[in-house]
Fold this sequence. Notes:
By secondary structure, the protein is of the alpha/beta class. It is built from 18 helices and 16 strands.
Amino acid sequence: MNKQIKIFDTTLRDGEQSPGCSMNIQEKIEMARQLERMNVDVIEAGFAIASKGDFVSVREISKNIKNCTIASLARALPKDIDTAWEAVKYAKRPRIHTFIATSDIHMKYKLRMRPDEVLENAVNIVKYAKRYCDDIEFSAEDATRSDPEFLAKIFQAVIDAGATVINIPDTVGYTTPDEYYKFIKNIRENVGNVQKAEISVHCHNDLGMAVANTLAAIKAGATQVECTMNGIGERAGNAALEEIVMAINTRKDILGVASRIDTTQIMRSSKLLSNITGVYVQPNKAIVGTNAFAHESGIHQHGVIQERSTYEIMTPESIGLSENKMVLGKHSGRHAFEDRVEKLGYNLNRDEINKAFEQFKELADKKKVVYDDDIEAIVNKDAIDIPKAYELKRFVINSGNTITSTASVVLKNKDDEIEEASKGDGPVDAAFKAIEKILGIEIRLKDYSLRSVTQGKDALGESVVKISDANKIYTGRGLSTDIVESSINAYINAVNKMVYEIN
Length: 503
Ligand code: KIV
Ligand code: ZN
């Protein structure tokens, strides 16, 4: 039997830290549930002391997730450890993950501490955290640019102090596979008590080598890998979970390890994350890109028809892509719809199915055929329920290439219907300005995008709107076969998230 590698998912912490990827509490809980469904070993749910929102998300994930270890990040400060523990203490398997930088550059310019002070601090903080929790992970930030001898000394000391996992991050994505392999091996050989702890690696993708470095570390004996869905994360991102897991599965012959991940949940996890953040992967992204299993050239298509393994090293089914893409239409009944939703891997309750079926019928009236992607877009749209402070009642647009666009929009707020009109630079701008007048506040629009969910003139248009206040970016999503309506819905969705978080 192959040795098991633990998958430590930090989508909700390192991933969420990256620009444009912030999530609200409901979204984080939904994502955590999906990570649990996929069988990750550890979910790093957030950085509890970073904000009230982070704290509540870590606490709620700790209460709701039963089958994964739940970790919170904490600097090497007692107040960080206290807060991390307050948030993770509800988990069935809690972990405190503390870190301090160990490279000369970080110690000198960021921490303004001498190496002996850093070592003392690390040991003290692990002992402090250990009073609360058995499972303590210690990370040596910027490990790959640290002096290997100093690193071995600090790891030895924190393991003696009670650390159960030592993490060796390539914080700035600087190392190469060969170098990282030797680096990890050196630590294994020079930390006398290393067998008492799990060896973890955490790679950033600044030079595009995060996954290759992670795999090299596995070869060198790492037993836990830290990664994020779709590779989101600081700057160029973290090592992508789906790439590591599928590499482990596909190349067992050379890596000789396994993971507990249910790979058929990969595609669903990837899509859920994109839907929540509005950050979509590029078409040629390994494993989860829309082209990852598409064979365009005639020679390749011919080969795959004759024998799949000619050009396919993994099957689409292994990541949860259904080969049998069925289409539904306006004559499809409830039973066929429910059956399709279930086959796509969604387990909806009665209310959710009723709501989704209603939307499906509306869509099927406008569109000849409804594809799997349309169904997933509908199901995911309402997956995360937040109170709707504002709802669209109706709108009228007047637009053309020789006139100034105008929009009149009516929104419902509690029992009131409020109407405003505005001019704008095109119909979407006019509609957004009318909504801004209704809200009576200035909204900072950070980003707006529109894409079609499937092919064809009658395709569903999906709009993503990002707005911001002083602290945060809020992402809204809207769906409709009418692109102005989907844009308005996305804008209102983002506003509702902002109202919900502020209150
Ligand atoms: O990249 C890094 O060094 C980190 C640590 C806090 C683990 O994210
Ligand atoms: Zn990181």
